[in-house]
């Protein structure tokens, strides 16, 4: 049965030419296809014959209606008509801001699947993702805040007050490790930031450059061994890395000790948020006086992500494409690209090594009630667009921790501190004030 309402069947020739012109005029898309070989793909409805096709050849793109053109394409991105309607809303809701999110959460059972050449699908992941985004932009021109190509004011100060250092720690699994860390601020409150899976602490530069935070806090952030600017451990070999709760806690504990941190508040997102909960369980042992877990919960089953993370291809393209779908569609374009760049620049198999902790390697389901929030206050934050760890997952975890606070963040996704720092900061300040209030009361 054909759907009554279908976004593709409503596109006339004028609309298609407008989409084509928008894609041709986009600098980022042109960069993505500059060295690309010929490819073709279509966005198609599982419950309708209409589709939108794209053909790329020699830095040129043609957009055409299907099945009217009769052209064959290398691969097809399928979804139900109702799904595509949600994808192409002016501001789509979770998980429709990303086809990766649809694959992950909805899957073949709901009619979301990829047909055709799977190698072409992964090889051109950046191209088809940009095409979808640009179709939306052509239908609904984005706001100036979304297309903004400027960093927030504090980020652009010539006197960058973040200072980088190296120190050595020793981890049972990796041996001696030369770890990069950076500091900023001169306040009395110590904060330690933890990066996400397969990334590094550049994600926290906007927070560490914020003048108000610098006055209140002394901030630290480090890259795990083999990540970002840290050296690999002496026994760490390419493609052999695997993160775990004990390994991660050991690294955090040694950094706290080596840096001489006192009454430190630990904050991280995603994998770094999950381990904040593990830190809270060991707060007295580690000398931690509060945690701010972002995009975290007590457990995420691996099967929630197998559909997309089992795909193989160029890690420098696939990794950022798969994770950046969790960014809010309203985030400033320049910060979206910054997150993409950070994920594209990591060493081989670092990201899947971290996912071994993020998925199932971290299981706090039976331990959350053991956290003492009088000794270690917990303030959890999760963005509305996070489809990996949804706000409800975080909310349910917080409910297991007596005294914990949870707040859902509007207009933010999986990387709140780095995708839209201006929007994130008020939430972070509230969390910081709550923890310090509990500390002073006790």
TrEMBL record:
Gene3D superfamilies: alpha/beta hydrolase (3.40.50.1820). InterPro entries: AB_hydrolase_1 (IPR000073), AB_hydrolase_fold (IPR029058), Carboxylesterase_BioH (IPR050228). Coiled coil: none annotated. Residues 191-424 form the AB hydrolase-1 domain. It comes from the Eukaryota. This is AB hydrolase-1 domain-containing protein. It comes from Exophiala bonariae.
């Amino acid at each position: 049965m054909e759907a009554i309402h279908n976004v593709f069947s409503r596109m006339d020739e004028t609309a298609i030419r407008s989409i084509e012109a928008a894609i041709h005029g986009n600098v980022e898309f042109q960069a993505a296809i500059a060295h690309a070989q010929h490819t073709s793909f279509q966005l198609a409805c599982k419950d309708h014959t209409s589709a939108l096709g794209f053909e790329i050849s020699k830095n040129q793109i043609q957009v055409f209606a299907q099945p009217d053109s009769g052209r064959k394409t290398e691969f097809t991105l399928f979804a139900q008509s109702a799904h595509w309607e949600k994808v192409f809303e002016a501001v789509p809701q979770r998980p429709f801001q990303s086809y990766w999110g649809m694959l992950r959460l909805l899957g073949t059972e709901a009619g979301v699947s990829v047909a055709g050449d799977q190698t072409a699908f992964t090889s051109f992941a950046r191209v088809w993702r940009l095409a979808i985004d640009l179709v939306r932009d052509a239908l609904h021109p984005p706001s100036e805040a979304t297309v903004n190509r400027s960093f927030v004011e504090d980020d652009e100060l010539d006197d960058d007050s973040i200072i980088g250092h190296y120190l050595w720690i020793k981890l049972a699994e990796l041996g001696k490790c030369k770890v990069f860390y950076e500091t900023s601020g001169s306040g009395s409150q110590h904060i330690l930031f933890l990066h996400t899976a397969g990334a590094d602490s550049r994600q926290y530069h906007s927070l560490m450059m914020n003048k108000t935070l610098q006055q209140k806090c002394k901030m630290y952030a480090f890259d795990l061994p083999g990540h970002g600017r840290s050296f690999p451990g002496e026994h760490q070999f390419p493609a052999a890395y695997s993160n775990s709760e004990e390994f991660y806690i050991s690294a955090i504990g040694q950094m706290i000790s080596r840096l001489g941190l006192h009454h430190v508040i630990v904050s991280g997102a995603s994998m770094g948020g999950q381990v904040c909960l593990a830190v809270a369980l060991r707060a007295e042992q580690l000398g931690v006086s509060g945690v701010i877990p972002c995009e975290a919960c007590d457990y995420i089953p691996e099967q929630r992500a197998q559909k997309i993370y089992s795909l193989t291809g160029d890690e420098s393209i696939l990794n950022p494409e798969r994770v950046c779908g969790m960014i809010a569609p309203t985030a400033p374009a320049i910060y979206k690209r910054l997150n993409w760049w950070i994920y594209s620049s990591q060493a081989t198999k670092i990201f899947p090594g971290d996912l071994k902790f993020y998925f199932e390697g971290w299981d706090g389901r039976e331990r959350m009630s053991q956290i003492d929030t009088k000794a270690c206050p917990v303030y959890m934050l999760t963005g509305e667009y996070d489809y990996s760890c949804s706000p409800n997952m975080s909310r349910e975890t917080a409910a297991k921790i007596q005294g914990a606070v949870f707040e859902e963040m509007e207009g933010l996704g999986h990387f709140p501190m780095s995708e839209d720092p201006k929007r994130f900061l008020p939430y972070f300040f509230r969390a910081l004030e709550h923890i310090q209030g509990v500390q002073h009361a006790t």
